[in-house]
Design a protein that fits this description.
With 476 residues, this protein is of the alpha/beta class. The protein folds into two domains: 3-222 and 428-443, Aldehyde Dehydrogenase, Chain A, domain 1 (3-Layer(aba) Sandwich); 227-418, Aldehyde Dehydrogenase, Chain A, domain 2 (3-Layer(aba) Sandwich), CATH 3.40.309. Helices cover 43% and strands 16% of the residues.
């Protein structure tokens, strides 16, 4: 986007926010019926624009599997909206809290989920629809109004997103601000009622600092090096095939993808053999076929090639799993490679990989694995493959991560009812389902006074009643 267009987008951003804030003040608590109508319209929108969504993904990624677009970017979002529409009337209900009848009599305390107002959503490039319209589901279910900022790296998807939402919602309910880097810098400085950012920890830190000037609450969905831990009893064809398949979703360009594998030292050669067999049987010609997603741009393709070059220069064994697999600089596609036992100081072990490279490191004990994970930043997800429940529970309860899967990887991110988010370096806050509804709601504590209470004893002048309450509490 050129400078003039970006400047216009920045000027229009204040108008978009002001329009939505005025509309919110006119209707600060939309009914369940209105919210369900919004969610139904959103689901219908995704289905009706399905062919054009697939076309836009292909345009921005160079190649993008139709099935991945259908399952994740279209049906996943529509299903999420349908789930919220079915449950929003329950989520909106006040939640009673216990009170002490001695002090508060027949008074009632409850939590009322209230819309926050106008929410900004800064969307990454890797899932242009799932991470824009997906969180919009819970934002609308909570009764908010939303301005979405798509990534400048997916311009065709961004323009389609703007068209779709403009045709479906009034701009004072949902709007889209399309712009480049300068708009991205300005977006988090505005006085939002809440801000969602999905992206890297490095940029997330800048977004959080910018939002802090206005005390804007933020939800940060950041990346992280998500490990897959294989126990002795789980180094088998099913496990290895599942891990490789998850790694190839979006060609590894997914924040909850398996970033590296930890394998028992005695089973390392078995893992490699099983990976080769899986590739031979299922991945022939994959990197040149329609199921391989293109790397988003040449810069990222070059970065990934640099990671492999550094590993080779340090003497690491690099195994290209796909027979005859070759890099396609024009199509921006590359085959899946294993890097065996890379040292910790390599860039691919320090940075989130975000591509079809899978480091595989041996370990000698589960305690060693747990200590290693806990010595680093907390990941967005941890994936344990073990038939032994004791081993799985050790890792689950002795490590901290945003999400956790047992005998699966990344699947927690596809469940509409399961809160999704990070912890520490991998983010803060949650969306999806009830957890997302609460994230984008003001959980207002409410007390309604009743009869037969002793509330007045809490305020001066303090007299015999206060003394009797204190004595009763202390058992005097």
């Amino acid at each position: 986007m050129n400078t003039a267009s970006d400047s216009l987008a920045i000027r229009n951003l204040d108008i978009r926010i002001a329009t939505q804030k005025a509309a919110f003040l006119r209707d600060p608590y939309p009914s369940a019926e209105e919210r369900r109508a919004h969610l139904g319209a959103l689901a219908s929108m995704m289905l009706s624009y399905r062919p054009r969504i697939i076309e836009a993904l292909n345009a921005d990624f160079g190649t993008h599997p139709q099935a991945a677009g259908e399952l994740i970017e279209v049906l996943g979002v529509a299903g999420r909206a349908a789930f919220a529409a079915e449950n929003v009337h329950l989520w909106m209900k006040p939640e009673d809290r216990v009170t002490d009848p001695v002090i508060f009599g027949t008074g009632r305390a409850y939590v009322l989920p209230q819309p926050k107002g106008v929410i900004g959503n800064m969307v990454p490039w890797n899932f242009p629809f799932d991470l824009s319209v997906g969180p919009l589901v819970e934002m609308l279910a909570a009764g908010n109004r939303v301005v979405i900022k798509p990534s400048e790296f997916t311009p065709v998807c961004a323009q389609l997103l703007r068209e779709m939402l403009a045709a479906t919602f009034d701009r004072d309910v949902v709007d889209v601000a399309v712009g480049g880097l300068e708009l991205s810098k300005v977006f988090p400085t505005k006085r939002w009622d809440h801000l969602l950012f999905t992206g890297s920890p490095q940029v997330g830190r800048l977004v959080a600092l910018a939002a802090a000037d206005n005390l804007v609450p933020v939800t940060l969905e950041l990346g992280g090096k998500c490990p897959a831990i294989l126990a002795d009893d789980a180094v088998d064809a099913r496990t290895v095939g599942h891990i490789l398949g998850i790694k190839l979703i979006k060609d590894g360009q997914m924040c909850i993808s398996v970033d590296y594998c930890l394998v028992p030292r005695a089973k390392l050669s078995d893992f490699v053999r099983l990976a080769r067999t899986h590739a031979h049987e299922h991945l022939r010609g994959h990197s040149q076929g329609p199921d391989c997603t293109g790397i988003i741009n040449s810069s990222n393709l070059n970065r990934l090639c640099g990671l492999l070059d550094e590993a080779r220069s340090r003497g690491c064994e690099v195994i290209t799993l796909e027979e005859g697999g070759s890099f396609g600089p024009d199509s921006r596609r590359m085959p899946l490679s294993l890097v065996i036992d890379p040292p910790e100081d390599l860039a691919l072990m320090r940075e989130e990989i975000f591509g079809p490279i899978l480091p595989v490191r041996p370990y000698d004990s589960i305690d060693e694995v747990i200590t290693g994970i806990n010595s680093g930043e907390r990941p967005l997800g941890i994936y344990v493959f073990a038939h032994d429940q004791i081993v799985a529970r050790q890792v689950q309860y002795r490590t901290l991560s945003g999400g956790f899967c047992h005998n699966a990887a990344a699947v927690h991110g596809a469940i509409p009812s399961l809160g999704f988010g990070g912890i520490g370096h991998s983010g803060s806050g949650r969306h999806h389902g009830l957890d997302g509804f609460r994230e984008f709601s003001n959980l207002k504590g409410v007390f309604v006074r009743g009869d037969n209470d002793h509330i007045d004893a809490l305020a001066p002048p303090y007299g015999p009643l206060a003394s009797r309450i204190i004595a009763a509490a202390l058992g005097d």
